[in-house]
TrEMBL record:
The active site is at residues 52, 127, 151. Heterotrimer of A, B and C subunits. It holds the Pfam family Amidase. This is Glutamyl-tRNA(Gln) amidotransferase subunit A. Belongs to the amidase family. GatA subfamily. Residues 1-439 form the Amidase domain. The gene is gatA. Allows the formation of correctly charged Gln-tRNA(Gln) through the transamidation of misacylated Glu-tRNA(Gln) in organisms which lack glutaminyl-tRNA synthetase. The reaction takes place in the presence of glutamine and ATP through an activated gamma-phospho-Glu-tRNA(Gln). It comes from the Bacteria. InterPro entries: Amidase, Amidase_dom, AS_sf, GatA. Keywords: ATP-binding, Ligase, Nucleotide-binding, Protein biosynthesis. It comes from Agaribacillus aureus. It catalyses: L-glutamyl-tRNA(Gln) + L-glutamine + ATP + H2O = L-glutaminyl-tRNA(Gln) + L-glutamate + ADP + phosphate + H(+). HAMAP family: GatA.
């Protein structure tokens, strides 16, 4: 704990933590030491964990990187957080993020951007950018983020670490502030596959507080990390033909595919023309869900209330427009528009249908192949400010990660070397629902 606290202090210019639970973490470390001596300690004894500012931790502040939750304290711990603590993990602090998880660069935060440790002029990715940097820069061993469309995998790729988005419904969302409920998953950042597998083992599984969580038994992921079989791997032609794909990333991904071929695995190109609709489908559906989820922040129940109000309506309007950032407002407007009576069928219903088609096709590919491999992102970490004023350009950062989110399948980003500038490149591996065990062992084999 002292080691990580020192790093947090030494690297405070990276702007990772909104709050550090220094005394509390040191006290918990003493307790865990005591338990250690007595020989009765939890599975995560001494594991130092950071939390994205979207995960509720009882009696601690939480504000989803938003002014609208200013001063708000959580009365509950989310299920994942509770399970970490029950196994003697040590929570070290609350981490910066894009407001409500909306963003790809950690620049949509009222607390300012988080910097990538490798090059401080570059973004760490988003929305769980700070959680990725906390692991990258050794400020904690593991961090929990949330991945709605890539927010764990994309920053993991930009920071050169591992980021897992498990199957939708594998981890309870109780205590995770909602962005787009049918996409949101808690995700795990780590430097090793072992740590990632161990944490998933602890936090996954049925939970009476989340009616959508799967009741499927949680596997012993850490006990199944050996990989010794030949597998079938698919890659999508369309991915490699994407306009914005950086040549170096393309080459690195193809090298990995060639390595797998040389090792005797079956690697095949397939086509998936519909995949070009994954990004628009994602943005129509998530903005729709967000506009509904965020309607609860009305200046009455939580956090910020405008001081300049005359009546009830102006209190709602002013509280919301003064506190929400511009990206959140943009998405509430888009979402409200696609859900409005005259456009509902043209956008929302249509996008739901396309989501089904993408999900079915993805699952049918994964019934023939064990894995789909592609780059995690089309580019490496971009410069701070470079895309901030161009939302469409920013949305392209999620080009490759949204397929797994639209389909609900698990996906992981693992480091795949660096480009000539020394910037990390990520490799994304996807597999079928609830096959996290295979995902871990295959990733470990590739690494
Ligand atoms: N960048 C994507 C978005 O802004 C993904 C966000 C996420 O996964 N939370 O929606």
């Amino acid at each position: 704990v002292k080691y990580y606290l020192q790093n947090i202090e030494d690297k405070s210019h990276l702007n990772v933590f909104l709050e550090v639970y220094k005394e509390e973490a040191l006290k918990k470390a003493e307790e865990v030491d005591q338990k250690f001596r007595q020989g009765t300690y939890g599975k995560l004894a001494g594991l130092v964990v950071g939390l994205k500012d979207l995960l509720c931790y009882k009696d601690h502040r939480i504000q989803a990187g938003s002014k609208i939750l200013e001063g708000f304290e959580s009365q509950i711990s989310g299920t994942a957080v509770e399970r970490l603590i029950a196994e003697d993990a040590i929570i070290i602090g609350r981490q910066n993020c894009d407001e409500f998880g909306m963003g790809s660069s950690n620049e949509n935060s009222p607390f300012g951007p988080t910097l990538n440790e490798i090059d401080n002029s570059r973004v760490p990715g988003g929305s769980s950018g700070a959680s990725a940097v906390s692991v990258q820069a050794d400020m904690c061993q593991v961090a929990l983020g949330s991945d709605t469309g890539g927010s764990v995998r994309q920053p993991a790729a930009f920071c050169g670490i591992i980021g897992l988005k498990p199957t939708y419904s594998r981890i309870s969302r109780h205590g995770l502030i909602a962005y787009a409920s049918s996409f949101d998953t808690i995700g795990i950042f780590s430097k090793s596959i072992e740590d990632n597998a161990l944490v998933l083992e602890v936090i996954a599984g049925k939970d009476e507080y989340d009616s959508t969580v799967s009741k499927k038994e949680v596997e012993n992921y850490t006990g199944a990390l050996n990989f010794d079989k030949k597998v079938k791997v698919a890659y999508l032609k369309e991915t490699f033909e994407s306009e914005g794909l950086n040549d170096n990333i393309k080459e690195k991904t193809l090298n990995t595919l060639n390595f797998l071929r040389a090792e005797g695995h079956q690697v095949e190109e397939i086509t998936f023309p519909l995949i070009k609709y994954a990004l628009p489908t994602y943005y129509i559906l998530t903005t729709a869900e967000a506009s509904s989820n965020l309607s609860r922040y009305d200046g009455v129940k939580y956090g910020y209330r405008s001081p300049n109000t005359e009546d009830l309506l102006s209190m709602y309007k002013k509280s919301r427009s003064e506190a929400f950032g511009s990206e959140v407002i943009r998405r509430i407007m888009l979402g409200t528009f696609v859900l409005s009576a005259s456009y509902y069928d043209a956008y929302y219903t249509k996008a739901q249908k396309v989501r089904r088609l993408i999900k079915d096709k993805t699952q049918s590919i994964l019934s023939d192949y064990d894995f789909i491999i592609m780059p995690t992102t089309p580019t490496t970490a971009f410069k701070i400010g470079e895309r901030k004023n161009d939302p469409l350009e920013m949305y392209l950062a999620d080009l490759f990660t949204v397929q797994a989110s639209v389909s609900g399948i698990p996906a992981i980003s693992v480091p795949n070397g660096t480009d000539p500038e020394g910037l990390p490149v990520g490799l994304q591996i996807m597999t079928n629902d609830f096959k996290e065990s295979e995902l871990f062992s295959f990733s470990k084999y590739i690494l």
